[in-house]
Design goal:
Layout (H helix, E strand, L loop, with lengths): L7 H11 L12 H7 E8 L5 E3 H11 L8 E10 L4 E10 L2 E12 L2 E11 L3
Parallel strand pairs: 1-6
Antiparallel strand pairs: 1-2, 3-4, 4-5, 5-6
């Protein structure tokens, strides 16, 4: 894969527009859209501490978005850190209709395309 270097400011702007993942309809709502967002090796740890495979996440997203979804959320404490020349760690706090969580996502940028390598959501007591 060809890597195109981004400044941390460019990466932060691009990733801020994409987070929270799977809640931004402008980046897609179909299974094909979600498949394109996820790296082949993607996996997730949910708020429960359960590890989820890419296949499980895709199935859940397809079910959730079978009908239009309207969500109210607020992202705060957004931060982006370069892990390497094409890997970025994003962290933020998400208030999803009163359900608070701390989120982290590892993104890869290659050939002009962003893909999610890993995601974790940890519940925060209100």
């Amino acid at each position: 894969m060809k890597n195109t270097e981004l400044s941390i400011e460019q990466a932060t702007e691009a990733l801020c527009a994409r987070e929270p993942i799977f809640h931004r309809p402008d980046f897609g709502t179909s299974r094909a859209d979600f498949e394109a967002m996820l790296a082949p090796e993607f996996w997730e740890i949910g708020a429960s501490g359960t590890k989820y495979s890419k296949a499980c996440v895709l199935h859940t997203l397809e079910s959730r978005h079978a009908k239009p979804v309207a969500e109210i959320y607020e992202v705060t404490d957004f931060a982006c850190q370069a892990l390497s020349s094409n890997l970025y760690l994003v962290t933020y706090r998400l208030d999803l209709a009163g359900r608070l969580s701390q989120r982290s996502t590892i993104w890869r940028y290659a050939s002009g395309v962003w893909q999610i390598v890993f995601h974790q959501g940890t519940s925060i007591a209100a």
